[in-house]
Write a structure and sequence with these properties.
The protein is α/β, with parallel strands linked by helices. It folds into 3 domains: about 5-135, Rossmann fold (3-Layer(aba) Sandwich); about 140-315, Rossmann fold; about 320-455, Helicase, Ruva Protein, domain 3, CATH 1.10.8. It has helices at about 15-25, 35-45, 65-75, 90-95, 110-140, 150-165, 180-190, 205-215, 230-235, 250-265, 290-295, 300-305, 325-340, 345-355, 360-375, 385, 410-430, 435-440, 445-455, and strands spanning about 5-10, 30-35, 50-55, 80-85, 100-105, 170, 195-200, 240-245, 265, 275, 280-285, 310, 345, 380. α13 packs across α15 (about 360-375). The radius of gyration is 29 Å and the shape is globular.
């Protein structure tokens, strides 16, 4: 059942209030009218209403004062102002103080309903955008990047320091190590988090398309350019542009990009006027750019512009002690997504998982786990299931797993416990130590939450 939207009406004319109230009730809204603006403001409770409609000229308290008082209590609520004397100056004043729309008396019922629908739709879109942005910021918090090895910890410490500075960063590492994940974490932990994060794979487009995709073009710049078009640099204005596989940039694009990094301006294809934008550039590569410079395939001056700070991500084979943690995380994700209840890997399959060199790194590990979960019929992923997707005796599975002898179940159990302890600590931090709220988000009751806090030795100073 869809919740009915709640609308607060404020007008000292009782007849107009009754008319608006009835019209809105007839169209499926819940409406309540006040003829006293002072009483309406006094009774107003944040989140109790979805929309406010208020007259501007009222005795005792003007509509603009009502507007300010309600916005002080709930800044994001849309407010429509009604007036019989709609001057440009008054409209500008009301809009500047936060009014969503102006409605001039006399008005038809249909116009009232139309304005109400528009205001509520706009409010819903803004709320969805806020929720999406909050979800993205939560997803890309540094503590949500899985791993406990020293190599990754030092990377994250470095990333945390440079995220807040408007510095060009080159992220290096093998394919599948999570370079774009780090770039997104940098963006969502930077002052630019409210603006766009725009990514492009420089190796996925042919040269002629890559240039127009990045810088845009003017109408008539080439055959088929029937209208002017913004490029990704303009789309990312105020935010972050991420150039993945930057080593694949052709020379002419490298030249234009270098000019932008130096001058903060560029020319669209076919345009003689420069375009200025404010964009932070992050880039990534799995190739050796210094070798590319020696061979003449990459400009040295561009390399130093992009590589003000270098972040190098270690391959998974150098952090195989993180594999149980990563496995637990991916299993948790898949269980949540597909409503399954796989508990993990059995001890033999976990040993194999840890011993592989994983040339495709985290991406390959994630894909293998997803495939295993799709095929497994038991509670634990067995060696037989795992063997369908990796060769346990191949050269890629020669690294020894960091498992204490005689107790092969310890790493996975420990990983799960560590993961759960970190998760609960993060939830407690997010809710400022409110155990009830943290327990609800974790999907457990208070008694279980207290028991786990005690079990994992989580102290108040930890959150």
């Amino acid at each position: 059942m869809v919740d009915k939207k709640r609308i607060l009406l404020i007008d000292n004319e009782a007849g107009l209030c009754r008319m608006m109230e009835q019209v809105l009730l007839d169209h499926g809204y819940l409406a309540r009218a006040y003829t006293s603006p002072q009483q309406a403001v006094e009774d107003f409770t944040p989140s109790a209403w979805d929309l406010v409609i208020s007259d501007i000229k009222m005795p005792g308290m003007s509509g603009l004062e009502v507007l300010q008082a309600i916005k002080a209590k709930q800044h994001n609520i849309p407010i429509i102002m009604i007036t019989a004397y709609a001057t440009v100056d008054m409209s500008i004043q009301a809009l500047r103080k936060g009014a969503y729309d102006m409605l001039t008396k006399p008005f038809e019922p249909d116009e009232l309903v139309y304005r109400v629908k528009n205001a509520l739709q706009q409010s819903q879109l803004l709320e969805e955008n806020r929720e999406l942005r909050a979800e993205l910021e939560e997803k890309f918090r540094f503590e949500n990047i899985i791993g406990a090895c020293e190599g990754l910890k030092s990377v994250l410490e470095r990333v945390g320091k440079v995220a807040v500075r408007d510095t060009s960063i080159l992220i290096t590492g093998e394919s599948g190590t999570g370079k774009e994940l780090i770039a997104q974490a940098i963006h969502y932990n930077s002052p630019r988090r409210e603006k766009k994060f725009v990514a492009i794979n420089c190796g996925a487009l042919p040269e002629n398309l890559l240039e127009s995709e990045l810088f845009g073009y003017k109408k008539g710049a080439f055959t088929g350019a029937t209208e002017s078009r913004y490029g990704l640099l303009e789309a990312a204005n105020g935010g972050t542009l991420f150039l993945d596989e930057v080593g694949n940039l052709p020379m002419n694009v490298q030249k234009t990009l270098l000019r932008f990094l130096q001058e903060k301006e560029f020319h669209r294809l076919g345009d003689t006027s420069p375009t200025r934008v404010d964009v932070r550039v992050l880039s990534a590569t799995n190739s050796d750019l210094k070798e590319a410079i020696k061979s003449g395939a990459f400009r040295e001056d561009l390399y130093y512009r992009l590589n003000v700070v270098n972040i190098h991500l270690p391959p998974l084979r150098e952090r195989n002690s993180d594999i149980p943690l990563l496995a637990a995380h991916f299993i948790l994700q898949q269980n949540h997504k597909f409503k399954t209840s796989i508990k993990g890997f059995d001890s033999e399959s976990l040993r194999i998982l840890c011993s592989c060199a994983w040339p495709g790194n985290i991406r390959q590990l994630k894909n293998v786990i997803e495939a295993c979960m799709a095929m497994e019929t038991g509670e634990y992923i067995s060696r037989e299931t795992l063997a369908q997707f990796i060769e346990a005796d191949s050269d890629s599975c020669t690294v020894s797993c960091e498992t204490p002898q005689g107790n092969t179940d310890v790493p996975y159990t420990t990983a799960l416990e560590r993961f759960e302890a970190d998760l609960l600590t993060g939830l407690l931090k997010r809710h400022n130590g409110n155990i009830d709220l943290a327990a609800r988000e974790a999907g457990m009751n208070m008694a279980t939450m207290y028991r786990k806090i005690k079990r994992y030795g989580i102290r108040k100073e930890d959150y």
